[in-house]
Amino acid sequence: MNVTGLKHFGFVLLLATVFYSCTPKGESQTTDVATETDEIIDEPVTFKFDFGDGNAADGYKQVTSTTFYSPETGYGLVSETPVSSGSNNGKEDASSDFLTSEHPFYFTMDMPEGNYRVKITFGNEQTATKATVKAESRRLMLYDVNLAAGEFATKNIVVNVRTPKINEQESIRLKSREHPYLNWDNQLTLEFSNKNPNINSIEITEDKEIPAVFLAGNSTVVDQEYEPWAAWGQMFPVFLKDDIAVANFAESGETLKAFVGENRLKKVMSKMKAGDFLFIEFAHNDQKPGGAHVDAFTGYKELVKRFIKETKDKGATPILVTSMHRRRFDEQGKIINTLENYPEAMRQTAEEEQVALVDLNAMSKDFYEAMGVEDSKKAFVHFAAGTFPGQEKDLADDTHFSTYGAYELAKCIVEGVKDNVPELAKHLRDNLPEFDPAKPDDFESFDWPLSPSFENKKPDGN
Fold first, then answer.
1. Class of domain 211-462
2. What are the tens digits of pLDDT across the range 55-82?
3. S-S: 460 plus which of 188, 252, 258, 296, CB 3.0-4.6 Å?
4. Contact status, residue 155 vs residue 192, Cβ threshold 8 Å
């Protein structure tokens, strides 16, 4: 079954059903039981899965190489190619065996909306481990996990699971193309890839208190569902510690007006709490003629200030981001500003409202010019016909990013956070190297295992 088909089962399991069908024997279960003193007990559940064809460790549900997802179990593998099992002799816990594949494979579990701590153990006694982990709609969670033969490691990530529903009467007004996106189902989905991922076990626990970073923006921010498209928002989680979640509500083609009108802002505010953060990045579509157009120094600033006010009212921190340039050079190899006054309007708004600003517009200029007119195509979706299955024509897009370009722009965001958002900077992973956009990473050293899903069509907002 193709992973994009996960959305089409047409069922929603109740929370109680998930807990009682999937909770391993002997594990405590979440309960909401009124005691004699009317106290409510609300203990988080930890779902434990032992990967491999050998005997499951005590307290773990077994996931063998043929444990494929079904609505009846509520969890399992999804893969278009075989997944193999191996044994780690001498190990007696959940690391005694593993699942691996040379091709991407998925593990999915029916889960209600929330933020989940996920603990993944990797390792193989006989061969080296090389793994990449993405979640939901290709969010990069772990990049290039490398372990020598006989070496084992446990990595922790936080995955946001969400649905369009706001309350019994209201939901986000999704675009038709969004309905099959893994971001919008009632499941937590992990993608394992790279040369030899060697997954020993997974543990999943909901965390209702963990702070969250919300993202509001367009196609340059969104979790792009399909290869070869990407945006900085889906790369950002890999740079964060496991003490904060990322909830990316950006969508292709969005404007400030549309984000409000489609109830996306209302959804964000319904989930936001004190101590959270909201990145706000719009311009590419707001500048275009039409009903969603707003002038830079009037309507644009007014709407950004609305986002700021609603965020502050929640006790959260707004962070403004100037939109990155499109790829357009003059005869001297310098970037031409196609975004008119919108980046300057965002800078002025940050100053007027006394909120943090990440000047991605300025950093992207340095990045593109450092790569040069021709090499900068590597940061965008420029691929010759036949690069991907079913791709009959060249792809040449100077607005939307390749995975490499999105990763480099996420590094720019990280630098902006370090410099201007100290309260968020403490959630960045330790010992992240300094990044200078004028000295971008070598393109050939970027190791991105392709996900199985591909789309020829350009995202909205080109």
1. alpha beta
2. 999 999 999 999 999 999 999 999 999 9
3. 252
4. no
